[in-house]
Amino acid sequence: MYLDTWDDFQKAAEDIYIASPLRTRYVSSYRHIDGELILKVTDDRSAVKYKTKQSTDLKKFIGLNRSMMSKMQNIEPTEAVHVPENAAQQPQGNAGIPTSKPASGKSKKSKKNRK
Questions:
Q1: What is the rounded distance in angstroms from the CA atom of residue 106 to the CA atom of residue 114?
Q2: Which stretches are tagged as biased composition: Basic residues (predicted)?
Q3: CA–CA distance from 61 to each of 2, 68, 80, 114 (Å)?
Q4: pLDDT of the chain along its 115 residues, tens only?
């Protein structure tokens, strides 16, 4: 269901996330043709939507993103974060970035030598 006011949508979206954080999805889409920003928050049981053409709602949208991301990143203090043992031994420059092997010096056969 589409909600008419931003405040109602933001409260409903945060309530859905608090009720079921593992099942909640937050989708945003922008229709360039119509100039519409459409936001949807659902947990497969209930869904709320908000549609706007106002550019002033963009700051509210960014604020909601920050609020939802901060809620999604909370880690319980009892959970341990796994740090690899060799993490301190990796060089700082290109740590974890694979390097490509240089091409071999062999060239392709020319058309004259093909049989």
A1: 16
A2: 106-115
A3: 16, 11, 32, 63
A4: 899 899 999 999 989 998 998 899 989 998 899 889 999 999 999 999 999 988 888 888 888 888 888 888 874 444 444 445 544 444 455 455 555 555 555 555 556 666 5
Q: CA torsion sign, 17 to 19 to 20 to 21?
A: positive
Residue 36, both tokens: 């519409």
21 Cβ contact partners less than 8 Å away, ≥ 6 residues apart: 71, 72
- Residue 93 and residue 42 in contact, taking contact as beta carbons nearer than 8 Å: no
CA 65 vs. chain centroid, Å, equals 10
Cβ neighbourhood burial of 62 (10 Å; 0-12, 13-18, 19+):
exposed
